[in-house]
Design brief:
Layout (H helix, E strand, L loop, with lengths): L12 H12 L5 H8 L3 H14 L12 H35 L1
Length: about 100
């Protein structure tokens, strides 16, 4: 592999849960667990926070959206539809204005 390019490691849900539980239930520090698993401590802190926020649903996996991100996606879609409709109303109302002036 070329210098400066690192391949991102992917970890499955079971690995993340067991790593977090080693910290929360195992009595080890995050730094100790991270060192023993050969991962960056910040990664473990992020997993721990996600687990604290979402429990067992914390790591949905590829292609599975959490409820919050699904709602954000839906909001973006609805806002886009609204903007399109606003533009359409503006276009059609301009056409009726010029008809009434004639």
């Amino acid at each position: 592999m070329e210098e400066g390019k690192r391949k991102l490691k992917r970890f499955d849900k079971a690995f993340k849960l067991s790593a977090v539980k080693m910290v929360t239930e195992g009595g080890q520090t995050a730094a100790e667990v991270a060192r023993s698993l050969d991962i960056h401590p910040n990664l473990l802190y992020n997993w721990k926070r996600k687990y604290a926020d979402n429990g067992e649903k914390a790591f949905p996996g590829k292609g599975h959206l959490t409820e919050l991100s699904a709602l954000r996606k839906k909001l973006r879609e609805v806002e886009m539809e609204r903007d399109i409709l606003k533009k359409a109303v503006g276009i059609f109302s301009k056409g009726t204005d010029s008809d009434s002036n004639s």
